[in-house]
Design goal:
This protein is an alpha+beta fold. The chain is 53% helix and 15% strand. The chain has helices spanning 21-70, 76-83, 117-123, 166-201, 203-216, 232-288, 293-325, 336-350, 373-390, 436-442, 448-458; strands spanning 7-8, 14-15, 88-94, 98-101, 141-143, 146-152, 158-164, 332-335, 355-360, 368-371, 396-403, 407-414, 462-466, 475-481.
């Protein structure tokens, strides 16, 4: 339960406490300022009291020292008149003249009030010796609000000096009143000044709130600015802008991925619809009519061809999904030169109008890597299939293999239209086709190169579209390390 006074909130409403950071900072600084002022005032008051009382004691001891110097050269009355003043009361008791005092001189404790020789006799000790004073000579004593000292002069007279220190309390009381009034005024001024100072200091937070609301409303390009890196709010602003950049990049990536997924689903549905429609048409033809043997064999061959096409697309989809989750490799010794010759022999049967050749560097170390033979063969098949579809009749495809100390490089060069420089990286993205119509006619799904690069990188290598130089066509380079990292 809150026991403090209620605070004035926004719109003049009463609230249980400052709800905003600015309000809490203002109250915290104001309380700290009040504590510091109270501590300062207390220290000043204590030091002032000590100083004033020290001045009074010094005044008494100085008068006592002066009396010792003037003793014997002046009479009792003249000495009293010389010592009085500045609020100091004087009483001088001698055996000859008795006690002489100023009107304000009080009697010290233990001293009997007497006239003439009675005071002097009362001041003497037993046997006529020195009087038994209230304390050691020149020691400043207190009696209520009076400070006094009793001194035995060289002539035998007893000097009593006194002063009233009540004005010290009056001075301190007046100072306390002034401190309270001045401190209260300073706190009021500080409250309003803190409002402006805190508002200016926390303005970057308001800017951050404004930017966040603008971004939430759709203005994603807004930023706070660089800010000063040597301040907390400046570093916070920089971190905020960096976070927004990352979020915007993530959103853009997600949108691109979503667009690619929609395009892929559209392409996949189109690719699957074509073979399924062929299968359905062939099956309906066999069911509704009773074709002859030749027509029946053509229909069955069409059904096999369309089912193979659909199976290839489904297999590519499954492979792409598994590569996204991480591919499992069955490692073994794979000779890329032997693998390239085997695959080229198969391609020669599929495209006899294209000149196929394999160039293996036999002078270097053997082109053997530790890899998954099935996966590497799948990569080589995809590369040669793309080269075969891109190379016109009468063109050529050259597969080069050379081995280095740490890696083996396999290059496939064709004499087709080539890959534009701007698209050499994009061709490895999923569902990307540089010539969608040609790929559809040839059965391509736009996944071959993406799958091939994922397999190459799973082996610790890479697959890139390199610059073919002065020659025509495209150049795809596969690099595999001899030992998988």
């Amino acid at each position: 339960m809150r026991t403090g006074p209620p605070l004035l909130g926004r719109g003049g409403r009463l609230s249980s406490g400052p709800a905003s950071l600015a309000g809490r900072v203002r109250w915290a600084v104001l309380v700290l300022l009040a504590v510091l002022l109270v501590a300062l005032f207390v220290v000043v008051d204590v030091l002032l009291v000590v100083r004033l009382r020290s001045d009074l004691e010094t005044r008494l001891t100085d008068r006592a020292a002066l009396a010792q110097q003037l003793d014997g050269s002046l009479g009792a009355q003249e000495l009293v008149e010389k010592l009085e003043g500045d609020g100091v009361g004087v009483q001088l008791c001698t055996e000859e003249e008795g006690c002489v005092s100023t009107p304000v001189a009080p009697q010290p404790p233990g001293a009997a009030a007497s006239d003439d020789g009675q005071a002097a006799r009362a001041s003497r000790g037993p046997g006529g010796g020195p009087p038994a004073g209230p304390g050691p000579p020149d020691q400043v004593l207190r009696d209520g609000s009076t400070l006094f000292t009793v001194t035995r002069l060289d002539s035998g007279a007893q000097l009593t000096l006194s002063v009233d220190d009540s004005y010290v309390r009056e001075t301190v009381t007046g100072l306390v009143v002034l401190e309270v009034v001045g401190g209260a005024g300073a706190l009021v001024v500080g409250w309003f000044a803190l409002g402006r100072v805190v508002a200016a200091a926390l303005r970057p937070l308001d800017d951050m709130t404004s930017v966040a609301r603008g971004i939430a409303a759709g203005d994603r390009g807004r930023r706070l600015g660089s800010g000063r890196p040597d301040t907390e709010l400046g570093r916070n602003a920089q971190a905020f802008d960096a976070m927004l950049d990352e979020l915007e990049s993530a959103v853009a990536t997600a949108e691109r991925a979503q667009e690619q997924m929609r395009a892929f689903l559209s392409d996949a549905s189109h690719e699957l619809r074509t073979p399924l429609a062929g299968l359905q048409a062939s099956a309906e033809n066999l069911l509704r009519a009773d074709p002859g043997r030749l027509d029946r064999e053509r229909a069955l061959a069409a059904m096999v061809r369309e089912s193979t096409r659909a199976s290839r697309l489904v297999a590519d989809l499954l492979t792409a999904a598994r590569l996204a989750e991480g591919v499992q490799l069955e490692l073994g010794e794979v000779d890329l030169g032997v693998l390239a010759r085997q695959e080229v022999e198969r391609q020669q049967l599929l495209a006899p109008s294209v000149a196929w050749s394999v160039a293996v560097d036999d002078d270097g170390p053997p082109a053997v890597v530790r890899a998954d033979g099935g996966r590497v063969g799948q990569v080589l098949t995809n590369l040669l299939d793309n080269a075969r579809r891109a190379t016109p009749a009468g063109g050529s495809v050259v597969v080069g293999v050379r081995a280095g100390a740490d890696a083996v490089v396999l290059e496939v060069r064709d004499t087709g239209p080539g890959i534009p420089e701007a698209d050499r990286e994009r061709v490895f993205e999923r569902f990307v086709r540089l010539d969608a119509a040609r790929d559809r006619r040839s059965g391509g799904s736009g996944l071959g190169l993406a799958i091939s690069r994922a397999i190459a990188r799973a082996h610790g290598g890479d697959l890139v579209a390199a610059d073919p130089g002065d020659g025509p066509g495209a150049l795809l380079r596969l690099v595999l390390p001899r030992t998988r990292p």
